[in-house]
Structure formats: structure tokens, C-alpha cells
Amino acid sequence: MNTETPASAAGTGTVLDGIIAGVREDLQARRAEVPLAELRARVADVPLALDGLAALRGGRDDAAGVRIISEVKRSSPSKGSLAEIPDPAELARAYQAGGASAVSVLTERRRFAGSLADLDAVRAAVDLPVLRKDFMVDEYQFLEARAHGADLVLLIVAALDDTRLRDFLALTHELGMEALVEAHTEEEISRAVDVGARIVGVNVRNLKTLDVDVAHYGTMARHLPDDVVRIAESGVDGPDVVADYASRGADAVLVGEALVRDGDPAAALGRFRAASRS
Ligand SMILES: O=C(O)c1ccccc1NCC(=O)[C@H](O)[C@H](O)COP(=O)(O)O
């Protein structure tokens, strides 16, 4: 597989381009430490991936309400440091206790202060599907995700041309994982669906301005086909937003900041889940 990917499919000098440039530099350093062949060997020793698709599907129809993907998010480009997370395993266990359906772990280092160590800690702490949330632009990262026990990875449509999107989705599935394919626009939703994405997220954070507009989910949701698992990403600052996403047909909601800032994330999750049922 050709792993040379343009900085972003758009290549417009956006926040995304800057993040990806840093991701590529960090990746070269890791590759020098652990060559691809060694990663492949490690993958063979890891237990099979959990079924992320099954965990997230059905939230729009069943009485249990919307599924929640709870994120371990230390920092962000838009807000800087969000929370001290001395023990990501403890946070992940709170998420599981609060009824999360999956845990997302940001592993990008420069802007989000994440790491593969966080992924390892969360993987060992919960038996929920775990999403490696990063800016996936190279085959190496997919093997790395699986070697560290991830069950799902993020594919950002805006960061990949159609060939890479298709190839990376195929690689994800070959490794037994599922992909959350993230779109921001109607055109990106079409591209995600055309390459065969089974889980499509609409991220309401604009990657050019970093502005969050929760109403954007409703505008985009009508373009999501019935047979994909629909995820609303970002912008949850309380139960009302979860209820709104649920009312617009989301199967699952991805929540970061509101949970890491809450002193009792398990209780917060309980409120979010209850709101989607009311
Ligand atoms: O969070 C950011 O500032 C950000 C900036 C640029 C690219 C991605 C970014 N966030 C990644 C995410 O998608 C969120 O962490 C996730 O959806 C949770 O969002 P929130 O609940 O609003 O923290």
C-alpha cells in the first residue's frame, strides 16, 4: 500500500493540515523504534477486536436510548488543557460504570496530549470496545492501533482522498476492527458512504474555524442513509444536546470535554443516557 498521503485531501492550510504535519513527524520517530514487521508480529498476539459496530448500532430505535462513546481527552486545539487525568484507566472504568457503550482515547500527542500509553491503560481497564482517536494517515498507525488493542479507529474524510479512504477502511476491516468515518459536510458524507463506511459520524466542530454548531448535526442527518450507524460528534455540554442529537436520529453520541471536566463522569453519563430516552 502506498502510505504517502497528502497533508489533507483539501490541502488548504487548515488546522487539520497543521495537526497532520505533526502526526507525521511523530510517526517517523515511532517507526524508527518499532519497525512495521515487528508491529505485524505484535498484532498476531493480540486478542481479537471486540465488535464496535454491534456496540454502537440501534440507539435510534431501542428503549435503552442513544449509545455514548465516552472520550479520554486531556487537551484540545480549541480549548488547551481540559482536565488533569492522572489515571486514564480509572476514568475509563467510571465510563463503563456509567453505561458507556465504547471508550474513545485520543492518542495524538502535540495538540491533545494523548499517547499510546493512554490507549494501553484504557484497553486493560475495560471490556468495552475502544476507539483509537487520532489522525490516521499511514498504514503503520492501523497496525499500531490493533497492536495496542484498539477495536475501532477514526477515519477523517477531510484528511484522506478517496483511494486512501477506501484502502484504509479495507485495512481496518482486514485487521478485524471497525472505523468511525467522520464527515463534516454533505459531500463528505457521500464520500464516506460511497467507500462503504458502516459507521458514519458527523462532527459539528468546524475544522477550519474550530467553531461548534450543534444544529449542524440536524442539517447533516438527513443525508445519512438508514443502513449506517449514525454518530453525532462534539458539542455536548449537557443532557439537552444529547436529547437533541437523539431526536435527530443519532444512534450514538461522542462526548469528550463535558465528561472529562465533570467530577463524577459516571453520573454525568447516567444523565445523558436518561435524556435521550425522555
Ligand atoms: O477538540 C478540538 O478542539 C478539535 C480540534 C481539531 C480537530 C479535532 C478536535 N477534536 C476531536 C473531536 O472530534 C472531539 O474530541 C470529540 O468529538 C469530542 O468533542 P467534545 O465533546 O466537544 O469535547
Notes on the protein architecture:
This protein has 278 residues and is α/β, with parallel strands linked by helices. 42% of the residues lie in helices and 16% in strands. The protein has an 8-stranded parallel barrel, surrounded by 7 helices. Helix 2 runs parallel beside helix 6 (139-147), helix 4 crosses helix 5 (116-125) and helix 10 packs parallel to helix 12. The model is unreliable at 1-12 (pLDDT under 50). The structure holds ligand LARABZUK. The ligand O=C(O)c1ccccc1NCC(=O)[C@H](O)[C@H](O)COP(=O)(O)O binds next to strand 10 and helix 11.
List the helices and strands and how they pair.
Blueprint (H helix, E strand, L loop, with lengths): L14 H19 L2 H9 L7 H5 L10 E6 L2 E2 L3 E2 L6 H10 L4 E5 L9 H10 L4 E4 L5 H9 L4 E5 L5 H13 L3 E6 L2 H9 L4 E5 L11 H7 L7 E5 L5 H9 L4 E4 L1 H5 L3 H13 L1
Parallel strand pairs: 1-4, 1-10, 4-5, 5-6, 6-7, 7-8, 8-9, 9-10
Antiparallel strand pairs: 2-3
The ligands found in this model are:
ligand LARABZUK
Q: Main sheet?
A: 8 strands, parallel, barrel
Unreliable residue runs = 1-12
Class by SSE composition: alpha/beta
- The averaged pLDDT comes out at 94
The shape, in one word, is globular
What Rg do the Cα atoms give? 17 Å
What's the number of helices? Answer: 12
How many β-strand runs?
10
Protein name: Indole-3-glycerol phosphate synthase
Catalytic activity: 1-(2-carboxyphenylamino)-1-deoxy-D-ribulose 5-phosphate + H(+) = (1S,2R)-1-C-(indol-3-yl)glycerol 3-phosphate + CO2 + H2O
Pfam families: IGPS
EC number: 4.1.1.48
